[in-house]
Amino acid sequence: MDTPFFGNFDLASLSIWLFWIFFALLIYYLQTENMREGYPLEADEGGESPNQGPFPVPKEKTFKLPHGRGEVTVPSVENEDAHRRTDLALEQTGSTGFPFAPTGDPMLDGVGPASWAPRRDLPELDGHGHPKIVPMEQTEAYRVSAGRDPRGLPVVAGDDAVVGEICDIWIDAPEQLVRYLEVELNEAHGGGKRLIPINFARIGAARVKVRSIFGQHFANVPTTKSHTQITLLEEDKITGYYGGGTLYASADRTAPFV
After folding, report:
1. E strand intervals along 54-201
2. What SS3 state is found at 62?
């Protein structure tokens, strides 16, 4: 046998074809894994959308959550229903494909830019099972090492109303960054403490400016159950409230720009 094994076989062609087959299977796997939440797609009216795309919904898979937080099975009807908000204060402005308009107070109803998702009402944990977001007054391990320490500065709303004073900073301990500023409201604006997402605060030399909402809105900022922890659900509600204010805080903001 003078002809070597694979002597007339194109190994380069085999290699490239194996690569393309592997790549196609990888795309299929990644796309189906990405469809474990939010699928099958639904139409605006709530029924199943006629166009589901070329990939099928994957079979159910159960994930064990860390730190004793149980299990979650996706995709599953029960999981989708548990994370679905119903009876939203919205109405469709036209036929299918038209936008929805708020029917009440969108900032309080949590719709549009103020929308939030029913996430788990538990704090986010780090790799050791400890809450990630903590107030600085509860720990001596962190300090403000650069920039202006905002504690003690007045908080000025989007309508220039002075609503209170910054009393604490809430930090993401593992990431070592500021997540929220805590404001002690004066009695004229509701009293008590509220959190301000750092993204919506502008720290100046003599004040902290919050442009997204006005003084009258601070009393309705969602609160936390604990003075030392914030849950995933509370984070979504608080951030959604400030985000909604960028459009809904004033009627002038919803008017078209010329």
Report:
1. 61-64, 71-74, 90-92, 100-102, 133-135, 154-156, 162-172, 177-185, 193-197
2. strand
Question: Taking the CA of residue 117 as centre, how many other CA atoms within 13 Å lie in the half-sphere pointing to its CB?
Answer: 8
How many alpha carbons lie under 13 Å from residue 22 in its C-beta half-sphere? 6
Q: Which whole-number Å values give the CA distances from 227 to 18, 230, 231, 247, in the listed order?
A: 58, 8, 11, 29
What are the pLDDT digits (tens) for 77-110? 777 777 788 888 988 888 777 888 899 999 999 9
pLDDT digits (tens, 9 = 90+) for 143-173: 888 888 999 999 999 999 999 999 999 999 9
Distant-in-sequence contacts of 141-146, Cβ < 8 A, 24+ apart: 141/173, 142/171, 142/173, 142/176, 144/169
Other beta carbons within 10 angstroms of residue 200's beta carbon come to: 20
Return all residues near 191 (Cβ < 8 A) that are at least 6 apart: 185
Q: What is the pTM of this model?
A: 0.85
